[in-house]
Amino acid sequence: MTKTTAYKNSRLRMEDVELASVAEKFGTPLYCYSAGQIEQNFDAYRRALKSVTDDFTICYATKANSNIAVLSLLQKRGAGADIVSGGELRRALAAGISPRKIVYSGVGKSDEEITFAIKTGIMQINVESEPELEAISRIAKKLKKTVDVSIRINPNVDAKTHAKITTGKKENKFGIDIEFAPALYKRALKLPNINAVGVAVHIGSQLTSLAPYKRAYARVADLVRILRKQGNNITRVDLGGGIGITYRNETPIDLYLYALMVRDVILPLGVHIVVEPGRSIVGDAGVLLSRVVSVKKGHNKNFLILDAAMNDLMRPALYGAYHAVLPLNKGGKPTLYDIVGPVCETGDTLHIDEKLPQLKAGDLVAIMTAGAYGAVMSSNYNTRPLAGEAIVQGKKFGLARKPQTVDDLVKNDVIPGWLA
Questions:
Q1: Is position 86 within any domain?
Q2: Where residue 162 falls among pLDDT bands split at 50, 70, 90?
Q3: How far is CA 71 from CA 39, 227, 299, in A?
Q4: Residue 309: CATH number of its domain
Q5: Rounded mean pLDDT of 143-161?
Q6: Taking the model in full, what pTM does it have?
Q7: What number is the average pLDDT over the span 214-242?
Q8: Same domain? 62 vs 97
Q9: Is the pLDDT of residue 76 over 60?
């Protein structure tokens, strides 16, 4: 639970709204986000960084939760956006985020996406390979534009996080090997319509220790000094994101200690700082509301079957991730359950032997800490419509995305004429 989502009179509330009333109005499964918690999390970054410098931009990592209502809320707090697709760029612009605060990351940018980004006039493109750098130069020349780029380097630092979300080791697909970076920056000096102004790094997600950051940032700082000696005018350093949150018993990084480390390692370079937090802005601000379909008694198990499934929240099946499940109404005899969804996969399991108050069909629960990598990773597996999304602010709440219907899915299928 957080400051904004907690029990009051045995009923789970988000800010000043009982979550049961949100579920009853909009149905389940339903994602629900606390505007107040998102604002608090963003402001914590801003305060920590401002304690050491005024020369920074916070580019929210849109991939964590790209709902336009969430993006608009952050835009009003002064956030930029870190985007990884042309679709996310369109969402950021629709939310009112200034192009001059948008950074474009990602390993597979198409020519169409690069063209759109250049025409939009975004802050910078984070380059992931030599072919991409050449493509940006070719497209920029055709458009008669000069493009600011940062080259994303791979520092070969183990972030000590889950293997599927580490991004800074040599075997990962991301970035340029730091040993090869000086040669690519030399190449950038010769390419037309390219202004290689920065160095970018991102070593992984859900980090709970400063040590990997310090190792990676020290290597970045050394590289910047080398690049300047060879004639590259490096004025920005994009430090990525990845700071973890509490799902079960993790201890998050103190943002002020992070800022002090940035002050000691990076600020002596005299560069503009870009940071890209995502999960730590929205993760603990969201829940997935679900209704109990039935309780099934097995040979030696009680299966609590929910209407939310792995297509709605993929993280437990994909990463073995933990998300606490809380009843919206406290009370009842403690009972052990295997908490599962209705999808036709054994992997559609949230918990094994989880203790909850005794529940029955129709009861409502909240799957906690689901604001990041929840709705954005959902699918239509088993022809299940995407869940809706709601947002709460104070005593107010409303839809932020309409729930899909099965009709929405069926009408998009087409039978080719030769089969009709």
A1: yes
A2: very low
A3: 11, 35, 47
A4: 2.40.37.10
A5: 85
A6: 0.94
A7: 96
A8: yes
A9: yes
CB atoms within 10 A of CB 1: 14
In the chain, how many domains are there?
Answer: 2
Is 406 found in the same domain as 391? yes
Of the listed 300, 334, 344, 362, which one is catalytic?
344
**Do the domain assignments include residue 290?**
yes
Would you say residue 170 lies in a domain? yes
Q: Going by DSSP bridges, is the β-strand pair 272-275/302-306 parallel, antiparallel, or unpaired? A: unpaired
Backbone Cα Rg of the chain: 23
- Mean pLDDT, residues 21-41 taken together: 98
Asked if 59 is an active-site residue, the reply is no
- Distance (Å, rounded) from C-alpha 2 to C-alpha 32? 14
Instruction: Say whether pLDDT at 280 is over 50.
Output: yes
Whose tokens are 């001059």? That residue is 100
Pairing relation of β-strands 334-340 and 349-357?
Answer: antiparallel
CATH code: domain of residue 82: 3.20.20.10
Peptide bond connecting 268 to the previous residue in cis, omega within 30 degrees of 0 = no
Contacts of 318 (CB under 8 A, 6+ apart): 164, 377
Where in the sequence is the domain holding 354, given as residue range(s)? Answer: 5-33+283-410
Note whether residue 418 is domain-resident: no
pLDDT of residue 30: 98
> Do 295 and 303 meet the contact criterion of CB atoms below 8 Å apart?
yes
| Residue 266 pLDDT class (50, 70, 90 cuts) | very high
